[in-house]
Amino acid sequence: MIHPTAVVHPGAKLGPGVSIGAYSIIGAQVELGANTQVGPHVVIDGRTRIGADNRISPFCSLGAAPQDKKYTGEPTALEVGDRNTIREFCTFNCGTAQDAGVTRLGNDNWIMAYVHLAHDCQVGDQTVFANNAQLAGHVRVGDFAILGGFTAVH
Hints:
Layout: E1 7-8, E2 13-14, E3 19-20, E4 25-26, E5 31-32, E6 37-38, E7 43-44, E8 47-50, E9 55-56, E10 61-64, E11 77-80, E12 85-86, E13 91-93, E14 102-105, E15 110-111, E16 116-117, E17 122-123, E18 128-129, E19 134-135, E20 140-141, E21 146-147, E22 152-153
């Protein structure tokens, strides 16, 4: 179900069973996989591909331009795998041309509130990021890693 107050660009690709909450905004180049649930007040923009069966909580910003002075609008991306839980107020930015050009989050991750994945981060599968874990640009985190609350990686 798409809430009547949600704004979904006609170019966005929504898989079967996708739900989008009130006041959420889904951009033109966004792809949402089957059965993904987007809560209220979420903004998903940029060249963003999110897989199936994800749960995205309110007030997240996914796929925005990277917070990098070198970024000048190049076509970069954010990719999120399947079966991730992304809690409130998380921010995941697209990549930059100076690296892979893509920020990636794998499958089956538990991402708690206020987590930031900066440009070009690569996160594996089955990780747990506690509240306020912050990754600066270009950080690599492997499978099964656990980051405690207020962990900052640069």
